[in-house]
Amino acid sequence: MEFCRGRKVDDLEFLKERGISEVKVAKILAEVFAEMIFVHGFLHGDLHPGNILVSPEGENGFSVVLLDFGICKQLNEDFRLKYCELWEALLRTDGILRSLTSKLGAPLRVRLLAYAEYALYGLSLKADSKSDSAIEVVLFRFKIGLRYIQLRLLFGILGIVSWLENIKHTSTRRFKDFLASAGFVVRSLYRPLLTA
Questions:
Q1: Phi/psi zone of residue 2: left (φ > 0), alpha (ψ -120 to 50 degrees), beta?
Q2: What positions carry a catalytic annotation?
Q3: Crossing angle for the helix pair 77-92 and 94-124, nearest 10 degrees?
Q4: Which PANTHER family match (predicted)?
Q5: Distances (CA, A) of 171 to 81, 105, 128, 149, 168
């Protein structure tokens, strides 16, 4: 057993006091969960804020500590690979991606991209079998890398589209507010003339 320093992950005051970015902590957590499942085929069955600490020590100014591995499950290799393929298929479906990213914003895009990266990396591990030649392994990993680049580009484009839609929505709202204010000013200026 080991003593680990840190505070619960949902202690936002602590994060603020230490200058630790909540977004960076969330990104690290998404990457940890994704790597745990997609790459190592391991599932922690009791993750909640009390079992996740943020320590002020670490490479990036903090580290994330997972506690209480009493309820864990090792996924069999076939299930792990099929789960990676499922996530790859889900993330490649344009309509689902557009819907998810537009509704949930940038932080979710970060999480989905982490899932995509580790799902594809998890798929690349099956290329290590002894029956594959070195050339087949290199080609397979190259294809996986290309798929990841395609997903990153797609997320980038969807991010730009979402940003443009937000600008359009904000501009439209501001223009309507401006027209309403202008109408009020015009009515206020001409009301004395009309009542005279």
A1: beta
A2: 46
A3: 150
A4: AARF DOMAIN CONTAINING KINASE 5 (PTHR43173:SF28), ABC1 FAMILY PROTEIN (PTHR43173)
A5: 46, 19, 53, 33, 5
Strand partners, 39: none
Tokens 């600490």, located at residue: 53
* CB contact at 8 A, 118 and 34: yes
Average pLDDT score over the chain? 76
Cα(179)–Cα(196) distance, integer angstroms: 26
CB atoms within 10 A of CB 161: 13
Closest CA to 66 of 46, 37, 41, 42: 46
Look up tokens 């996740």; give the residue. 52
3-class secondary structure, 84: helix
**Predicted model pTM:** 0.51
Look at the domain 1-74 and name its fold.
Transferase(Phosphotransferase); domain 1 (1.10.510)
Indicate the pairing of strand 7-8 with strand 63-66. Answer: unpaired
The upper half-sphere exposure of residue 15, i.e. CA atoms within 13 Å in the direction of its Cβ, equals 16
Per-residue model confidence as pLDDT tens digits over 126-179: 555 555 677 776 777 777 777 777 777 766 776 676 667 777 777 777 777 777
Strands 63-66 and 52-55: antiparallel
